[in-house]
């Protein structure tokens, strides 16, 4: 009989035969203790290293845990203790791991509470933005109190993952509550892959030339020759693609010198890219939220310069800088339009670029109007702009019903 599988958040492990229960006599907290071993072979050395790094970064996180064999234990848990003993040889390796999980509850007895910020993005166009939120695919019982969202839009994700529902017009001061199966909680998540392996930790070793930031709608990768970033958008059938140059006075030359994962949650992933100056540095932060049709960017530097983002090669765009964005003039070969926006006053162009002179920072976003000139409500360039302005900070928590 083969081993089962154990999915702890994003990290797959081997499900062993034994699980140990304990109950705290003072608090009544139920806990389970697990231990196992991951080895190479059958897994690669890179997979083993990634799993060991990701495990130790789980401490104090509330995560869905899915058992393939002991299905009655599937539910939501808080990681209380983690241990990993790593043994490596040139041709093989393994690590023994231990986990203590404090049980929050089975999936039928737990709600996800999305604690949303109350302030929309400050901007120079007197825009109130659009408050929106996207729970995981398969969410049920979405509840915002006595005032429901004003509407919703479905966005089809890549890799046959399904359609994610984006709720629009979330009432102010409300933290939505919703239910979800533990295995479904991963569907539609934001994620970062390093050398093809999805990672769950922060502050881990990453390769600057081999990473992917994606939520199934937007995909961002480094471009090792030419531009600094490639931004792609999924329309339900194909990926549209544009290369982006980051400019700080002049175009930055690839590759990036370093990359750090600042946040790595199902609802939001934040990366920080570093490029050296002589002397000094340039930081570019990338944020991708679950359900978003755009990636958010933020350029920082230590001395005033003209900061900008532009397509490479140049793209024919309509310059709507007076209202916060530029837009590809006509549909691309997939029938979509690329758009870039900035929440502060900036200089737009008809050649695919935005910039701001004499500045040390520049917030921006880039995304796709799916179906281009035939885009539906919620997916138009103006709606993407408003959703960027209205994007709210989110912390998702698992709570007992």
List the helices and strands and how they pair.
Blueprint: E1 4-8, E2 11-15, E3 20-23, E4 30-40, H1 45-56, E5 62-67, E6 75-88, E7 93-106, E8 110-116, E9 132-133, E10 140-143, E11 151-156, E12 163-168, E13 177-179, E14 191-194, E15 197-199, E16 211-214, E17 218-222, E18 229-234, E19 239-248, E20 250-251, E21 258-264, E22 268-276, E23 281-289, E24 294-311, E25 317-320, E26 325-328, E27 337-341, E28 353-369, H2 381-389, E29 394-400
Antiparallel strand pairs: 1-2, 1-5, 3-4, 4-7, 5-6, 6-7, 8-13, 8-29, 9-12, 10-13, 11-12, 14-15, 14-16, 16-17, 17-18, 18-19, 19-20, 19-24, 21-22, 22-23, 23-24, 24-28, 25-26, 26-27, 27-28
Descriptive keywords:
401 residues; mainly beta; Elongation Factor Tu (Ef-tu), domain 3; Beta-galactosidase, Chain A, domain 5; 15-stranded antiparallel beta sheet; 7-stranded antiparallel beta sheet; 2 helices; 5% helix; globular
């Amino acid at each position: 009989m083969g081993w089962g599988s154990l999915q702890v958040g994003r990290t797959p492990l081997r499900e062993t035969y034994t699980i140990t229960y304990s109950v705290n006599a003072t608090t009544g907290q139920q806990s389970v203790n697990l231990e196992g071993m991951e080895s190479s072979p059958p897994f690669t050395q890179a997979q083993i290293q990634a799993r060991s790094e990701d495990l130790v970064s789980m401490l104090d996180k509330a995560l869905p845990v899915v058992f393939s064999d002991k299905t009655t234990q599937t539910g939501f848990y808080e990681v209380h203790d983690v241990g990993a003993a790593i043994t490596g040889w040139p041709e093989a390796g393994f690590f023994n791991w231990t986990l203590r999980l404090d049980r929050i509850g089975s999936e039928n007895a737990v709600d996800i509470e999305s604690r949303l910020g109350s302030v929309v993005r400050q901007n120079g166009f007197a825009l109130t933005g659009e408050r929106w939120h996207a729970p995981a695919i398969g969410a049920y019982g979405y509840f915002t109190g006595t005032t429901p969202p004003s509407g919703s839009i479905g966005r089809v994700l890549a890799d046959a993952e399904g359609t994610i529902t984006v709720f629009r017009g979330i009432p102010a001061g409300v933290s939505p509550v919703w239910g979800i199966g533990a295995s479904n909680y991963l569907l539609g998540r934001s994620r970062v892959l390093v050398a093809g392996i999805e990672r769950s930790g922060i502050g881990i070793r990453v390769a600057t030339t081999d990473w992917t930031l994606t939520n199934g709608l937007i995909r961002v990768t480094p471009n090792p020759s030419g531009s600094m970033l490639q931004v792609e958008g999924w329309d339900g059938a194909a990926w549209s693609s544009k290369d982006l140059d980051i400019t700080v006075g002049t175009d930055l030359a690839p590759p990036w010198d370093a990359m750090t994962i600042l946040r790595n949650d199902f609802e939001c992933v934040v990366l920080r890219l570093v490029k050296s100056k002589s002397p000094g540095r340039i930081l570019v932060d990338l944020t991708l939220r679950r359900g978003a049709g755009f990636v958010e960017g933020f350029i920082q530097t230590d001395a005033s310069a003209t900061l900008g983002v532009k397509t490479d090669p140049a793209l024919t765009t309509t310059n709507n800088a007076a209202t916060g964005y530029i837009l590809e003039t006509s549909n691309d070969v997939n029938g979509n339009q690329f758009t870039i926006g900035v929440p502060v006053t900036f200089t737009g162009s008809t050649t695919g670029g935005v910039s701001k002179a004499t500045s040390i920072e520049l917030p921006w976003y880039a995304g796709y109007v799916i179906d281009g000139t035939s885009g539906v409500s919620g997916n138009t360039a103006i709606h993407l702009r408003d959703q960027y302005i209205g994007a709210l900070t989110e912390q998702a928590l698992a709570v007992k019903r």
